[in-house]
Amino acid sequence: MLLQIEGLTITHREDLRVLLEGFSLVLNEGDRAVIVGEEGNGKSTLLRWIYDPRSVEDYADCVGRRSGGATLGYLPQELPAQLRERSAAEYLAALPAGDWYRLAAELELDPRLCQERRPLRSLSGGERVKLQMALLLAGEPDVLLLDEPGNDIDLETLRWLERRIRSHRGAVLYISHDETLIERTANRVILLEQLRHKQRSRWTVANLSFADFMARRRSGFAKQAQQARSERRADREAMERFRRIQQRVEHEQNVISRADPSGGRLLKKKMAAVKAMERRYERERGEMTQPPEYEEAIALRFDGAAAFPAGRTVLDWTLPELVAPDGRVLARGLALRVRGPERVGIVGRNGAGKTTLLRRLLTALEAREGYPVGYLPQDYAEALDPARTPVEFLAPGGGKEAVTAARTRLGSLNFTPQEMLHPMDALSGGQKAKLLLLRLCMFGAGVLVLDEPTRNLSPLSGPEIRALLASFPGAILSVSHDRKYLREVCTRVVELTEDGLRELREF
To answer: If residue 319 lies in a helix (H) or strand (E), which one and from where to where?
Structure first.
């Protein structure tokens, strides 16, 4: 045994919601356990508590026990703000040069990064994740605790991450929204749920692959629902027969002659039998199979999105040089033509300039007339005021009808009434992503420009979001490394290289 958790209960202090109750888990060597669940269900809080219980004391009350002598290595979902201002040279200062060059080669990082004086915030998201992984792996921990390790890394590094998770000599406990990564690595699944409008928590630990777990879950729910329907149908039929018997006996009681004492005694026995039958039915009803409980799927739809006739040109764009904010030339000879209703996915190595490219494309699209453009940034802070609430974000004017509509929409995304009034910085990354997608749905855009649209959405929400975007009647330009998104949503995939954009057939 490397790590054991016993009887852990986590309560969110602000709204007194129980995120986890009586949770227990044993991790052994060779375990590759993924934590899945909808946004805001406590996945990151659980991982942080396992690494350091003190790290969640400012917002959660936790009761439970952690034991085991394993060394732990923790990768947070976001690089802490104070570290984002450090340079790579400062961040890696404690790492011996020999270890750095070995890990840089393994991670396919430019070894010159260890001399980089730019702040980490100016590096690509993928470069920041790789640097964190380098420092983490240098400590050779027994248990890797990884919170969204696949965020912001390119396709080649995702494949490296899959190999690294599978080959780690100890155990790996991780959170991921990348269904392909989960399917290729996890041999255990930990599902955290919030039921009855987040009034009751439930957790499940299964020693199965993710695909097998989901298949058994769907099959089990279908069987339970069928059994519940069958029992309730049988109960209704039995109650109809019972009511007929009861009415007949009551009728006989009303008409029997007082001069027939033997008949009265017989009817008294019949009525006692009827009462016993009623008690038996009530007892059996209490033991009936209950319909399955599960979190409701999110409900999103596009309001008034503009459809593009097939073949109509949405964008015909060229750029001699793509230049980074620091003046570096990232690519030359770029050209992209988009026709409606194409959905174009953009991929490329970390640091290639995909977000810079997307912003240039956004500027070009906004300069055109005739259709509104909706934008989802990779950094949610660009679009969300941390002090505002979700209701204020969707209904900035504060009108009664607008606030009511905003609350209804937020409810369809499984926000509780309390969460609707939380400040933005108290929401999970997935909740922020859903909020921004909801605004895009309400905006009526004809073109969507999306930077990593599925990066913080759970594997349970992912299929719904992919289906939503695949149904969008306009055009989509998006940066993504989500392989299911690229296959199911995008009609074209292009790769950003130093020599421009090239079409990809396989990825």
So the answer is: strand 313-323
What's the mean per-residue pLDDT of the chain? Answer: 87
E-strand ranges in 324-461 read 329-339, 343-347, 373-376, 447-451
Average pLDDT over residues 406-418: 88
The token duo for 42 is 């406590």
User: How far apart are the C-alpha atoms of 333 and 320, rounded to whole Å?
Assistant: 5
For the chain, the farthest-separated pair of C-alpha atoms sits apart, in whole angstroms, at 111
What is the sign of the dihedral through the CA atoms of 260, 266, 268 and 270? Answer: negative
Tokens 């899945």 sit on residue: 36
The CA-CA-CA angle for residues 158, 163, 169, to 5°, reads 135
In angstroms, rounded to a whole number, what is the distance separating the alpha carbons of residues 142 and 72?
6
Within a 13 Å sphere around the CA of 433, how many CA atoms are in the beta-carbon half?
A: 21
- Vertex 332 angle, CA 329 and 335, to 5°: 135
Residue 113 DSSP symbol: G
Cis peptide before 341 (omega within 30 of 0): yes
The CA-based angle 439-465-32, given to 5 degrees, is: 125
Q: What angle do the packed helices 97-107 and 125-138 form, to 10 degrees? A: 130
Which residues make Cβ contacts (< 8 Å) with residue 114, sequence separation at least 6? 88, 89, 92, 95, 97, 100, 104
What DSSP string runs through 323-358? E-TTS-EEEEEEEEEEETT-EEEEE--TTS-HHHHH
State the residue for tokens 């895009």: 440
Please choose, from the candidates 124, 120, 40, 37, the residue with its C-alpha nearest in 3D space to the C-alpha of residue 81. 120
CA angle 462, 468, 473 (to 5 degrees): 150
Beta bridge partner(s), residue 445: none
HEC states along 140-188?
A: CCCEEEEECCCCCCCHHHHHHHHHHHHHCCCEEEEECCCHHHHHHHCCE
**Which of 98-102, 213-217, 281-285, 476-480 is the most confident on average?**
476-480
DSSP 8-state code for residue 422? S
Question: pTM for this one?
Answer: 0.78
Return d(Cα 46, Cα 58) in angstroms, integer.
14
Across 352-488, the runs of DSSP E, i.e. the strands, are 373-376, 447-451, 475-479
DSSP assignments along 475-496, one per residue:
EEEEE---HHHHHHT-SEEEEE
> What's the confidence (pLDDT) of residue 321?
95
Q: How far apart are CA 455 and CA 230, in angstroms?
A: 41
pLDDT tens, residue by residue, 125-145: 778 888 898 899 888 999 999
* Helix or strand (DSSP H, E) at 242: helix 210-255
Name which of 24, 32, 29, 26 is nearest 3 in CA terms: 26
The residue ranking higher by pLDDT, 467 or 114, is 467
